């Protein structure tokens, strides 16, 4: 089996080479890019199984490119770990909200970095195996709940046929609620399901729930999510 390919997008050559050395020592294959333009060229040569992405790049913000990746059906499910020196709560929330699967702050411990890479690959592709090979036949996974229809395969959500504009984390939260209407999810439940390997606290859940409600406002699904005081959140059993 071919080792997973990690694309390291980092403009500082010394850090880029250090990350590559650490990952290759754990038997991962690596490709390197110092900008978004170089990363796109690397994609054309070989699609990576995971991207380690710096937030600040010379030609474009890493967050903006991450949003582009998440908005494309070809790369919506591609694992991305942000690797950045900006580690306060607001920056973590912004990165995760943009669609990052995890957020590693520099300076990092080599074993922690590779452990997080393996954890994300397991969630996305199973046991760290390459995730860029699609199955011979893929069945679309669709969730319906009242006026809500969510196609997890296509990363699309509608309320009474009207498309919803959701970030990656908002989509994951809403699909979790819609798949189990009536069940109450505590904030810790949601952290474990949506941010399983990221170091964020329960306030992150509240921030994303507020954004999710704003995204649903004015749609047929605006009253679908309820707050259960002192416990958490749930989707109304409709």
UniProtKB/TrEMBL annotation:
<dbReference type="InterPro" id="IPR001789">
    <property type="entry name" value="Sig_transdc_resp-reg_receiver"/>
</dbReference>
<dbReference type="GO" id="GO:0005829">
    <property type="term" value="C:cytosol"/>
</dbReference>
<dbReference type="InterPro" id="IPR011006">
    <property type="entry name" value="CheY-like_superfamily"/>
</dbReference>
<feature type="domain" description="OmpR/PhoB-type">
    <location>
        <begin position="140"/>
        <end position="237"/>
    </location>
</feature>
<protein>
    <submittedName>
        <fullName>Response regulator</fullName>
    </submittedName>
</protein>
<dbReference type="GO" id="GO:0000156">
    <property type="term" value="F:phosphorelay response regulator activity"/>
</dbReference>
<feature type="domain" description="Response regulatory">
    <location>
        <begin position="5"/>
        <end position="121"/>
    </location>
</feature>
<dbReference type="GO" id="GO:0006355">
    <property type="term" value="P:regulation of DNA-templated transcription"/>
</dbReference>
<dbReference type="InterPro" id="IPR001867">
    <property type="entry name" value="OmpR/PhoB-type_DNA-bd"/>
</dbReference>
<keyword id="KW-0902">Two-component regulatory system</keyword>
<dbReference type="GO" id="GO:0032993">
    <property type="term" value="C:protein-DNA complex"/>
</dbReference>
<dbReference type="Pfam" id="PF00072">
    <property type="entry name" value="Response_reg"/>
</dbReference>
<dbReference type="Pfam" id="PF00486">
    <property type="entry name" value="Trans_reg_C"/>
</dbReference>
<feature type="DNA-binding region" description="OmpR/PhoB-type">
    <location>
        <begin position="140"/>
        <end position="237"/>
    </location>
</feature>
<keyword id="KW-0597">Phosphoprotein</keyword>
<dbReference type="GO" id="GO:0000976">
    <property type="term" value="F:transcription cis-regulatory region binding"/>
</dbReference>
<dbReference type="InterPro" id="IPR016032">
    <property type="entry name" value="Sig_transdc_resp-reg_C-effctor"/>
</dbReference>
<dbReference type="InterPro" id="IPR039420">
    <property type="entry name" value="WalR-like"/>
</dbReference>
<feature type="modified residue" description="4-aspartylphosphate">
    <location>
        <position position="54"/>
    </location>
</feature>
<keyword id="KW-0238">DNA-binding</keyword>
<dbReference type="InterPro" id="IPR036388">
    <property type="entry name" value="WH-like_DNA-bd_sf"/>
</dbReference>
């Amino acid at each position: 089996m071919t080792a997973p390919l990690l694309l390291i997008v980092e403009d500082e050559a010394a850090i880029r080479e250090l990350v590559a050395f650490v990952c290759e020592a754990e038997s991962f294959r690596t490709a390197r890019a110092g900008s978004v333009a170089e990363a796109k060229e690397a994609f054309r040569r070989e699609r990576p199984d995971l991207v380690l992405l710096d937030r600040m790049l010379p030609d474009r913000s890493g967050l903006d490119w991450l949003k582009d990746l998440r908005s494309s059906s070809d790369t919506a499910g591609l694992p991305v770990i942000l690797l950045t020196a900006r580690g306060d709560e607001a920056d973590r929330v912004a990165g995760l909200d943009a669609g990052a699967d995890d957020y590693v702050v520099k300076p990092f411990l080599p074993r922690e970095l590779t452990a997080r890479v393996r954890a994300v690959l397991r969630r996305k592709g199973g046991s760290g195996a390459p995730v860029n090979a699609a199955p011979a036949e893929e069945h679309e996974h669709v969730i319906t709940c009242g006026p809500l229809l969510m196609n997890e395969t296509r990363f699309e959500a509608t309320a009474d046929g009207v498309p919803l504009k959701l970030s990656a984390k908002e989509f994951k939260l809403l699909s979790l609620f819609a798949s189990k209407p009536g069940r109450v999810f505590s904030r810790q439940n949601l952290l474990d399901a949506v941010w399983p390997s990221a170091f964020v606290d329960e306030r992150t859940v509240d921030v994303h729930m507020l954004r999710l409600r704003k995204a649903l406002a004015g749609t047929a699904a605006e009253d679908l999510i309820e707050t259960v005081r002192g416990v958490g959140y749930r989707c109304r059993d409709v």
